[in-house]
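>> received
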Amino acid sequence: MEHHYILDKGAKKHICPDCGKGRFVRYIDTETGQYLPDNYGRCDRESNCGYHKRPPLETRCFFVPFIQLIDYSEKAFQVVTDGGTYYLPKTQVNEVIENGCYVTEFYLNNNDKAPVHLSTDYRYYSETGTIQIKDTEPKPRPKVQPVYFIPETILNATLKGYQNNTFIQNLLQWYPAEDIEKVISLYRLGTITRGYRSGAVTFPFIDFAGYVRTIQAKQFNETNHTKSTDFIHSIIERHHSEKGEPLPGWLQDYKQNERFVSCLFGEHLLNRYPVNPVALVEAPKTAVIGTLCYGLPDTPDQLLWLAVYNKSSLTLEKCKALKGRKVVLYPDLNAFNEWSQKAKDINAKLPGSRFVVSDILERNASETDKSKGLDLADYLIRFDYKQFRKVQTYTEPVTQPQAEIWQIIERQFTGRLIPDVWLSPDKTSDEIYYDLVVLSADCLINYGLDITPDQYYNALKSRESQLLNN
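>> returned
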């Protein structure tokens, strides 16, 4: 058996028929040097696309000319040739034509009683018959919907007017101005300075590559609860329509997008903070307040706060940007069960990632809170942010009694976390360290115990077998 189709080993790449990216390696026929039809090949974007269409497995068969072929029995043909009479197993004859048949190379080369064949006349056959790859119609290439972005100039025009920004001014009641300025710069928050949305804060959704996917505009009341929600492209469109003016070219293109909120809020920060554990919430407001409470992600053990947009926006597609990360999800009240199921599904489809759902709101909310569907931000602003900040010093932290830490660890792994997943002996040292970062952060967030990853490890290692054996 011989296979004669291989992936092109050259540097040339083609358009992938699945994802539309120029990362596709096509199969070639080694005997002719020609490409197979352009649906046969493999996309190099194995994690983000994974398309791979192989040519069918084939068997090379050579032509055996005959004078007569007789259906001798259920299992064999009798073949009369110039050189004599032969019996060929039917399983080794792949095709019979008018003056000859095609017999497998394996049988002809490994049988002393095989008839003479023509070495220059051969065909390839699959298990289901003759392979006609060279004549196969290429699979219709799916139409790739282009993605249009909001120009950087539009984003830059919002980066002002903070003195009239209700959301920002409200934050000054609870957090230091210096920290608020850093958060504004980090997430590139802005202001609508004119028109009926004047005073609204803008939350730009900037993707991993730095492109602006959309800009949400939200108006808040004096307690930072939402009054109205809009998007900057809609505001600009209404402005031009009311004046009877044509839409700018970029906006005409942008309106063709299938979805506008197509990335995570804060996704652009994943490049800047490549190893930090991620805190994932529903709304951008909550991500901002989470950062102000727990501090900026200046060290690898601090949380990087991102948002999906709303309850239904927690999807595998968006979370692909978090592949390989340790992620703690904080659903709003009444969304815990839905997000828990989604997290389980995402964990199964993003190898190397770890998504854990926090139940801090479910455990601490009153019935009134639950009826209002409060989010984590509503809960955090009830407390002094200093309670949530880890004191960053160069001195050794005060050692917590290991028994106290162990009690919290037992609570973590009783009904919430799966020991075999978190304490697997097959993990690398890096994976173990970042798990400890997330687990120690979970102690502070869910149980109010402020410890370092090293303290967590020291308390854990003496009794780890108890968790794994339960």
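>> The first strand starts at residue 5 and ends at 7.
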